[in-house]
Design a protein that fits this description.
By secondary structure, this protein is an alpha+beta fold. About 25% of the residues lie in helices and about 30% in strands.
Length: about 150
């Protein structure tokens, strides 16, 4: 699973799974792709959120070696993400790879077209995720499973 998809889904839900709302603010140093400072209560294998960074904003897994080197003043917050949510994001990412590219019928803004005496109508395609129609997004396909995590 990509951290960018996890970040996108959390952002869409407005839920960063920071149960105790712990936010550690300060100046942070990332050198050789690693966070130099110790983040209180952050354990190996735990997700965390970075905000205020030029290169690394978003969700990451601790410890990671994917961070881009920088010094930034911002916030790091440990996250408590349930395993079933991670599995849901993996399903969303699989759907996005299969149906979310620009050539996919789901991404086409047109369901029918006519020109020069020729016309056609795309049928709504079925999939293991339900009916895929023009303009269908992962948000609509997975709305039922996402709603329990949504914050207002």
């Amino acid at each position: 699973m990509s951290f960018s998809m996890l970040t996108e889904v959390c952002n869409d839900l407005r839920n960063w799974f920071n149960r105790d709302l712990t936010k550690h603010e300060g100046t942070w140093h990332i050198v050789n792709n690693n966070l130099l400072e110790t983040v209180p209560n952050l354990q190996a294998g735990q997700y965390y959120l970075i905000r205020g960074s030029l290169f690394n904003d978003g969700v990451h897994l601790y410890p990671v070696d994917e961070l881009r080197d920088e010094v930034f003043t911002g916030m790091i917050s440990p996250m408590v993400i349930p395993a079933d949510f991670v599995a849901l994001v993996e399903d969303i990412e699989a759907w996005q790879k299969k149906y979310g590219d620009v050539d996919s019928a789901a991404m086409s803004p047109y369901s029918s077209e006519s020109f020069g005496g020729y016309s056609y109508t795309k049928s709504a395609g079925g999939s293991e995720y339900g009916t895929i129609k023009s303009g269908t997004t992962w948000q609509t396909i997975f709305a039922g499973r996402l709603n329990r995590y949504r914050k207002i």
